[in-house]
Design brief:
The complex is a heterotrimer of chains A (540), B (412) and C (81). By secondary structure, chain A is an all-alpha fold. Chain A is 69% helix and 1% strand. In chain A, 44% of the residues are buried. Classes of the chains: A mainly alpha (540), B alpha/beta (412), C mainly alpha (81).
């Protein structure tokens, strides 16, 4: 079931929320059991077979976690074995459904082998669920989780607001909340939940979805081997970046809002990433819970063990500005690129995703390298940061937009076509209808090589206006986390110490003005449900 | 004063009021003419809304129109044939134009005809056929489309069980979506705009779209753009039909149209739609003309099998109308008389068609095809082409086109 | 070493890593308070601290230090190698 569907908004959600309040007010366990059952139904809605796939995996994981807990500190070697077995099991589970076909076709590509590809059903949200389960096992082994029952574990894995597209949560931040949540009607939670949910819905169906038909033909043309005019190529790149931005941002807001109906605060997942002033900053704002997971469970253990090994061997380690090149390469560059490679693969089984991950890895390394080696022009870093922020912003923005092309283009060669188009290899054309309206300017334009073409003028106009509006919102507006900061919309969010003028004006309070405003937002969102919708974060 | 409870009350109330207003407005303005709300001058007399929802709008319109004659076709029928034209004989009125813009194929013609016959006492059906539809097989549809679900009957003639749900869906979506709201608002705001597109209750459309394009870009650009498009399409069709040996695609569907009208005692007139010589030249020069002649022969056979009940008119010809010259590039003022662009004729020519087929004192134009005369007609068209295109008094074909494909007078 | 001396030493290490000379850590500092102190540089910081003080943290602890104060406490509590 999609959040942006009639059946979810008018059927599932009200039923589940009201049932939860009624049952939870009697006994907390009933409320939570109801929530778990509803989550299972939510998961089964799209394809009931999914439940048959996910249920055994939950039981096996639970069994392993129990075994880990019992073995505990007494027999660390045995516990380690169980943990590794659990991780391997989960990765195989994910690998079978998500990567088997890709691996086979990659083998066929590379060695000319003839593996037959089979069409497998990808269980919904399997990537998110798998990572969450692995994190749980690691946490149990490390002694960070204690006291859990099958009911707890089931709810943690299946909790529907974050089930199919994140955020990736930790048991230790969720369970205490489930144990303490009021489990009954609480007007503040409902008001905050409604506000977050409908802000998110509006972002998804009003801002993100209409972008899809505007950029789809451009990517299709690139995939068919057609070169794009510079303007079209940029519309493709910017348009898709903004589409996925608002899709994901809207989705994250909806997840926060839905959890809040049950008194639960999910962690931050999306924090105005296009405003980032460096690639490092970008990854601290884009898909925050994934970055957090990858850092904690892949990057950190890898770097820690590599650094310790180097130190034991008496070689120089990471030392700030005095870091040697070999140390930088082996302790920072290599783990970073490997981690981002995993991130790329996690997003999708395909060459484009791999290269996308590698590219971001390289960009991160450049960012880290520059931090270490940059010339010290200004005496203190504060001034440097202020002066260089615009430059950093532009470089980051361009890198992110260019890399996003790879996320949408079906093949690497299509990506290359679009990149070439973006730098003007295939010339610059303007729709003839627009060209003929320009009068004097048309002469000037053709003097610099701009050509008229039979492309749609109204399409160009719609795309440009839309992209312009979305850019202003993404770059200049405070996000929902800031607007609702006083009510802790996501775990750990606090109001700014010195809020900007805009944030002060837009601060959410449960008053009449906001109620009326949000009624408009909610209506606009619900009226837009009956339109073509492309849900991007589905298969990840 | 801020209180979450009050916030929720205000929010809920506001939401209901606003939703009610939206539904009421959409019902009053009826932007797609689904409900048949009376058109209010100054508010909803003109309806531009159906532009991208033609099949939806027209299926509901037709059911309310109770026509005696139904016009079946594609966008060229939709734009070029006026159901209210004075040339129609009284006995054929009222007339409904069920032409569907947007790439409707031969099977859509059969579907819409079946629907019109189901809806009421149709006595005459005029079915316009575009030759391009017979040069490629239609891709197999995957299941029923939304539009298929809307018809009263299934293709096999049995009642359509999905219709109820589809109608409910149509009602809901035309009352409570952002798209219908914006279309309602546009309808009201631009009501007095003289360049506003309108779908009349009889299914005919005004010329606003083409007229606006002409005023903005001039006739030359309209032709040039469509020539490029048609050239691409012709290449595609040539590849798709190159190896094909048997009867042309979709001729069977025409046979089904004939059978349907005979079973329901409907007088059928089949029309091979006129195209500008620009379009014909593209197909000639690309080598598809023999296929077009084959089509005429096959259609004549289909009509003959009906035993004289079915008239088959052929206007795909080189004649005084479709060889009219196109104004030069940069000329944004000179209009054309008969054609908007290579594949869409104007209502002037539509009127000539009506007079020729159903009226009196019509100019010598087109031909009534039969098995007996089809070869002679085909031969005559070749001669006419030689005179008009290869001779010195040929039409001013677009230079751009002439550069793209050579003259080909020796072909085929 | 006093708490203050530890904090000064940690600040120095972090300044080197981030190339930012204005860093002054307190017991309550959390990572979000320091501009650019992302999770990637965090691990480098931890290893540098390990090297400086000759201690070894558990990976589980590394993940869950709530603030700088917790790191200082872990250093003082850890057995010297």
């Amino acid at each position: 079931m999609l959040f942006n569907s009639y059946s979810f908004i008018f059927g599932f959600l009200p039923t589940v929320v009201i049932g939860f309040y009624i049952l939870g007010a009697r006994r907390r366990e009933w409320g939570l059991a109801w929530l778990t059952a509803a989550s299972l139904l939510f998961y089964a809605w799209w394809r009931p077979i999914n439940v048959l796939l996910i249920a055994p995996s939950i039981l096996i994981n639970y069994g392993l976690a129990r075994a880990l807990e019992k073995t505990g500190e007494a027999r660390p070697a045995f516990a380690r074995t169980i943990l590794i077995a659990g991780i391997v099991f989960n990765l195989c589970f994910l690998g079978y459904f998500k990567y088997l076909n890709f691996a086979a076709s990659a083998m066929n590509d590379a060695f000319g082998t003839g593996f037959v590809l089979t069409q497998l059903i990808l269980p919904l949200g399997i990537s998110f669920i798998t990572f969450q389960k692995i994190a749980f096992l690691v946490d149990v082994q490390a002694g960070r989780v204690s006291r859990f029952s099958l009911a707890d574990y089931g709810l943690f894995v299946l909790f529907f607001p974050q089930l199919i597209a994140g955020p990736i949560v930790h048991y230790r931040e969720m369970m205490p909340q489930f144990r303490a949540a009021p489990c009954r009607y609480d007007p503040e939670n409902v008001a905050v939940g409604i506000s977050l949910f409908f802000f998110g819905l509006a972002k998804k169906v009003i801002l993100a979805d209409p972008m899809s038909p505007l950029v789809a033909p451009l990517y299709a043309r690139a995939a068919a081997g057609g070169g794009q005019s510079m303007i079209d190529a940029w519309i493709a790149a910017l348009g898709f970046t903004l589409q996925i931005y608002f899709d994901f941002s809207g989705y994250s807001d909806m997840a926060l809002g839905l959890a809040r109906f049950f008194g639960i605060k999910l962690p931050v997942n999306f924090n105005s990433p296009l405003q980032a002033t460096s690639i490092i900053d970008f990854w601290l704002r884009w898909h925050v819970s994934l970055t957090r997971f990858l850092t904690a469970y892949i990057y950190n253990p890898m770097t820690l063990s590599l650094t310790r090994k180097r130190m034991a061997a008496g070689k120089p380690i990471f030392g700030g500005r005095n870091t040697s090149l070999p140390a930088f390469l082996s302790l920072l560059a290599m783990p970073t690129i490997l981690t981002m490679l995993v991130s790329g693969l996690w997003h999708g089984a395909g060459y484009t995703y791999i290269v996308w991950g590698l590219l971001h890895g390289v960009l991160l390394c450049i960012n880290h390298g520059w931090r270490l080696a940059r010339p010290r022009i200004w005496p203190d870093t504060k001034r440097y940061n202020v002066r260089m922020a615009p430059v950093g912003f532009i470089l980051t923005f361009l890198s992110v937009v260019a890399a996003m092309v790879m996320f949408r283009a079906p093949t690497l060669s299509a990506t290359l076509m679009l990149w070439k188009g973006m730098i003007g290899v295939y010339g610059v054309t303007v729709p003839a209808a627009v060209f003929s309206q320009l009068g004097e300017l048309a002469g000037w334009l053709s003097a610099v090589g701009v050509q008229p073409a039979w492309t749609s003028g109204s399409m160009l106009l719609t795309s440009t206006v839309r992209i312009g509006c979305l850019l202003v919102i993404a770059l200049a507006m405070p996000n929902t986390l800031r607007i609702l900061a006083a009510f802790e919309p996501a775990l750990g969010v606090k109001p700014d110490r010195t809020p900007s003028r805009l944030v002060q004006v837009l601060t959410w309070v449960p008053d009449t003005a906001w109620a009326v405003g949000l009624a408009f937002v909610a209506l606009a969102g619900m009226l837009s449900l009956g339109q073509l919708s492309e849900f991007l974060y589905w298969q990840f | 004063m801020a209180s979450p409870n009050r916030f929720l009350r205000t929010w809920t109330m506001m939401l209901c009021v606003l939703a009610g207003l939206v539904v009421a407005l959409n019902l009053l303005i009826d932007p797609y003419d689904v409900f048949g709300t009376p058109r209010i001058p100054g508010l909803s007399l003109m309806k531009p809304g159906p532009k991208n929802h033609a099949l939806l709008a027209k299926t509901y319109q037709e059911a309310r129109a109770h026509p005696v004659t139904v016009l079946i076709g594609s966008s060229s029928t939709h734009i070029g044939v006026d159901a209210a034209a004075p040339e129609w004989p009284e006995a054929m009125r009222p007339i409904y134009n069920y032409g569907i813009p947007g790439g409707a194929g031969v099977s859509t013609r059969l579907d819409t005809l079946r629907e019109a016959i189901f809806n009421g006492a149709i006595e005459n059906a005029v079915v316009f056929l575009d030759f391009q539809d017979f040069l490629a097989f239609s891709p197999p549809g995957d299941g029923m489309s939304e539009d298929d679900r809307r018809y009263h009957l299934l293709p096999d003639g049995k009642p359509n069980p999905y219709r109820r749900l589809q109608v409910a869906d149509d009602m809901f979506l035309s009352l409570a979506t952002m798209g219908s709201l914006t279309d309602s608002l546009k309808t009201v705001v631009f009501q007095r705009d003289p360049t506003l597109l309108n779908l009349a209750p009889d299914g005919s459309s005004n010329d606003a779209d083409f007229r606006n394009a002409f005023l903005a870009d001039g006739m030359h650009d309209l032709f040039a753009q469509k020539d490029d498009f048609e050239l691409e399409r012709a290449e595609r069709l040539r590849r798709s039909i190159a190896e094909w040996q048997g009867a042309l695609p979709n001729v069977d569907t025409v046979r089904a149209i004939v059978a349907l009208t005979r079973a329901n005692h409907v007088k059928l007139t089949l029309v091979i739609t006129p195209h500008h010589a620009d379009a014909l030249e593209i197909y000639w020069r690309i080598g598809l003309w023999p296929r077009i002649e084959q089509l005429k022969t096959e259609l004549a056979a289909v009509a003959d099998q009906a035993g004289g009940d079915v008239a088959l008119w052929d206007f795909l010809n080189y004649d005084q109308f479709n060889t009219e010259g196109v104004p030069a590039a940069g000329d944004r003022h000179t209009p054309t008389v008969w054609f908007w662009e290579p594949t869409h004729f104007k209502k002037h020519l539509g009127a000539v068609l009506i007079r020729r087929m159903f009226g009196r004192d019509a100019p010598q134009y087109g031909a009534l095809l039969t098995v007996a005369n089809v070869d002679a007609v085909n031969r005559r068209i070749r001669d006419r082409r030689r005179e008009r295109v290869c001779g010195h008094d040929g039409p001013e074909l677009l230079t751009a086109l002439a550069v793209k494909i050579p003259d080909g007078c020796a072909l085929p | 070493m006093t708490e203050q001396e530890y904090l000064a030493a940690l600040s120095q290490i972090l300044s080197d890593i981030l190339g930012d000379d204005s860093i002054a850590l307190t017991m309550d500092t959390v990572r979000e308070d320091v501009g650019g102190w992302d999770s990637f540089s965090y691990i480098n910081f931890i290893v540098a601290v390990e090297a400086e003080f000759g201690v070894k943290f558990r990976i589980a602890d590394v993940e869950s230090f709530p603030n700088v104060g917790a790191i200082v406490k872990a250093i003082t509590a850890a057995p010297r190698r």
